[in-house]
Amino acid sequence: MSQTQWERDIIEAQKSHIDGFALNVAPQDGYTDRVLQTAYDAAEKIGNFSLFIAFDYGSGGPWPPDRVITIINTYKNRRAQYLYNGKPLVSTFEGVANAADWPNIKNATGCMFMPCWTSLAPSGLHTVQDKIDGAFSWDAWPVGAEDKNMSSDKAWIDALHGKPYMMAVAPWFYTNLPQWNKNWLWRGDDLWHYRWRQVMELQPSLVQILSWNDYGETHYIGPIYEPGIPDGAAPYVNPCPHDAWRTLLPHYIDAYRRQNAMNRERISDPSAVTSYRPKLPISYTDKIVYWYRLNPSHSGSANGTTGNNPKMGQPELKPGEVSQDRVFVSVLVTQPSDVYVQIGQATPTVLLAGEPGVNHYSVPFHGQTGPMTKKIAIDSSSPLAYRPYGQLPEPLHYHQHQPPVPTTPSVPRSKVVLESINPDDYAQPYCDFMTNHPTIFHAVDGFSKELESKGYKYLSEREAWTSKLERGGKYYTTRNGSAIIAFSVGKDYQSGNGVAVVAGHIDALTAKLKPVSKLPSKVGYAQLGVAPYAGALGKTWWDRDLSIGGKVLVRNASTGKVEAKLVKLDWPIARIPSLAEHFGAPAQGPFNKETQMVPIIGVDNSDLFQSQQTSTTTADNGIEPGTFAATQPAKLIHVISKELGITDYSSILNWELELYDSQPACLGGLDKDLIFAGRIDDKLCCYAAHQALLASPDSTSSSSVKMGARSNFMSSVIERITQSFVPVTSSYGPDLLAQTVANSFFVSSDVIHAVNPNFANVYLENHMPRLNVGVTVSADSNGHMTTDSVSHGFIKRVAERCGATLQVFQIRNDSRSGGTIGPMTSSRIGMRAVDVGIPQLSMHSIRATTGRLDPGLGVKLFKGFFDYFEDVDKEFVDF
Questions:
Q1: Alpha-carbon distance 512 to 527, whole Å?
Q2: CA distance 283 to 288
Q3: pLDDT at 352
Q4: Which residue from 351, 472, 572, 720 has the highest number of Cβ atoms inside 10 Å of its Cβ?
Q5: What domain of life (predicted)?
Q6: Which stretches of the chain score pLDDT less than 70?
Q7: CB-based burial label for 594 (10 Å; 0-12, 13-18, 19+)
Q8: Predicted pLDDT of residue 707
């Protein structure tokens, strides 16, 4: 794995509230030193993540003691090394025969030694008590057709006589690797849930999950990397990602740690714990995780697979005897709910999740076949509420349920949660999107490609749409590469029905290159002519590493057509240098953006040596006079052309390039509960709207639209959708279009000011949005926002339906209000509208801050709007 892959895995593990990785290394592997170095480098770069080394004596024989000492001493002082009681933790996989090596190894390294000598069994532990500081048992799976109990763990704990015990937790186990004589199945089934319940009860000193990426034995919970799959395992690994098992991990791990803190503090109320706080936010929205085998246990050939491992002295059984033909379901609910599980077209099984917390069930196949369907329903009289950071369902329960009996459900209660959203899932993807799509053109291109991958079809504005649009279809269109609209058509859509719209501006404050950006060198510097866009080139632009990107128009010599090519340079090429404070008043401003904020792009001392050098003309640079290229810095033309593979500089007809802060977006804060990024205003709300549309099922009788512009772009798309579904017996006209607009609702989304703790006095009391809480309704008494009592009530009902939390912002009377696209768009089209925004700090700065959960909280509300628009609209039929 590369360091980047390590970093991605570490981030995924952190999202699951995992503290670190155990690195299993074998003596026969020549890459061990390189891999350890890469892993420790990655963990230290990401931060708040620990590693310890486990020496594998089972796969390649014994380790030379001197090499073990060298490896431990190499990494024991690294920042990422996990320390237990101040000592570097070290473990093994087997190696009991070499137990005599470890007193010397411990003396030479000062390590805390907790081996995995499972083959010794608790009864043999007394023979090595003087050599170990604790123990880890690999015994994580049951033997035979039984569920795993805690007898083995209790025996290990008793045999250790107070020394720490590391308990193993694992999902299922299956391996078929003839090259290593491995081909057996152990019962997994309910194990993932009930093993965590046993952890709660036993409260071991440490817990090790088996495993992150042991693909050959199928107990992996991490992402799949093809190079790590052993020969022969691909058929049962590649089609089976196990990422969903991480969904409830934060809740299991939090409950384990919180119970540990309760024991230390000798209290019984989880909410009263003072010595424990989650490292990362926990999302308490409804979640469903389910798993099952694709075929009944007795179908097909076992291919030599046995139930149990006879080589370990276990009784040999048939695989079908140890596995169960059931769908296994774990759900997290925040209040009593019904869970519907349906296989194919069979009658749904209704399961009662009677208390808040994690509930687990299994539903028998009963010969049923077909796709799995699942949903959570709760009583509409007690709607779900999103629980903010650090707040638990009181308390977090774990229940054991008898196998449910399939029943015919009564009329479903009115609240149905469709594919609940975990806000934390969007934090790192949002950072990646911001880093990889710095300009408006890159953002539209990125959205377009993701829409294509999700089955959306591109529509050209130049072509007629009436013959292309279909009910149930998903489409998108773009304008100038700088605006995009995507929509899905409901399966029952009729012209005149309403449209649910979420729209925002996708551009950001920037400095654009002037039409003639070439400037003469000045006192030894090459400079670039730029102009501020939307208020850029403010004080935060001083001394930043600026790169360049955008759209280049190129004429294709072979076709004669003009093509748009996107470019972004991956290194800083410009900087606007500030004047040192030593110069006094001139360094204090105000500053002239035309003359004092001109970026430098290099050093040019050619004026000092003109008499010694031959004059260089534009022709000498391959740039013909009179072309567009001749109006731009020659070196910039050369660099951009090289990036795009352009050899004829005269083929560049024009470009729209802009400067942007080159520092990547990243998670920040001690708990990594913040996001630091450039261009948050407003690629944040647009990103959330885009993801919400992708996460929403097709509407039943309306279209869903996201992202518009201030031109006629949005209105023209709505008109073309309405016209395309006019019945043959009717005609399209102003009346039908007016009906569509009247039945529609527009959510104008633009970032809003989060409260700044250093300037809280400038905010209106009770109108101070916080990060990681929820989307904010933007109000303004002077009509700078579209929000009124009706639209505020509308979005509030949506939030109640989808379990989102709303905040509210209004500017003080003695401050100046900003604006959004809401008033200009809604007044021109005429539809009902509300202004909402995701909170951020440092609006209009070159680099800003939002909360780790905020992109996902935006997805949650916008998806809720798409999902529940029709239901809520029926409540507001008189408005």
A1: 14
A2: 13
A3: 86
A4: 351
A5: Eukaryota
A6: 374-420, 611-620, 697-710
A7: exposed
A8: 46
